[in-house]
Amino acid sequence: MAAPDGTVWAFPFLVADPEQGECWGVVEPCPPGGDCDGGAWNPDPVYIDSVDLILAESSPVQVSVLVEGFLPTPCHTLGWGLSGGEDGLYLDLYALADPTAACAQVLEPFTEIIDLGAFEAGSYVVFVNGVEYPFEI
Predict the structure, then answer these.
(1) Distance separating alpha carbons of residues 54 and 114, to the nearest angstrom
(2) Using CA atoms, how far apart are residues 102 and 121, in angstroms rounded to an integer?
(3) CA angle 110, 113, 116 (to 5 degrees)
(4) Residue spans of the chain under pLDDT 50
(5) 20, 79, 92, 115: least CB-packed within 10 angstroms?
(6) Are strands 61-71 and 13-17 parallel, antiparallel or unpaired?
(7) Strands of the sheet with 131-136, listed across from one edge
(8) At a CB cut-off of 8 Å and minimum separation 6, what does 93 contact?
């Protein structure tokens, strides 16, 4: 799913109420005229255990990233942003939660497959939270 600003989200995301300075509810996707760019919540880090690249045998080759790790609490959901630069693709993973929710302080495991798209033959690099993962097709 993509937010209006192009950020890709794995799950529904929180919408901030700028007049109240707090978050409310969960929407999928942002409602027309909604403010999805800020609020009282801040993304939290995720704890990544493993990253594997999946190359599907097709023409052109479809590339996905399999990420396994932990969210800070069971109340968090996984979010990500995908952008491209001259030196590769940047996949930034983070965790989102309603800051007003009471939640057990235990790590929550996650496994996610994120589609990067189709690639022609060549050498590429994807950076997952700043760590470099080169691959060739």
Answers:
(1) 10
(2) 49
(3) 140
(4) 1-4, 7-36, 38-40
(5) 20
(6) unpaired
(7) 77-85, 88-96, 123-128, 131-136
(8) 46, 48, 67, 78, 79, 80, 128, 129
Determine phi and psi for 24, rounding to 5 degrees. -145, 140
Q: Which two tokens stand for residue 68?
A: 């396994």
According to DSSP, the β-strands at 123-128 and 88-96 are parallel
Q: What is the DSSP letter of 26?
A: E
C-alpha torsion angle, residues 106, 79, 123, 117 (rounded to 10): 130
* Burial environment of residue 64 by CB neighbours within 10 A (0 to 12, 13 to 18, 19 or more): middle
**What is the residue whose two structure tokens read 């399999």?**
66
Residue with tokens 């005229």: 33
Question: Sheet harboring 108-119: ordered strands across?
Answer: 47-56, 61-71, 108-119
Cβ 28 vs Cβ 1: under 8 Å:
yes
Q: Which tens digit of pLDDT belongs to each residue from 82-115?
A: 888 888 999 999 998 887 888 888 999 999 999 9
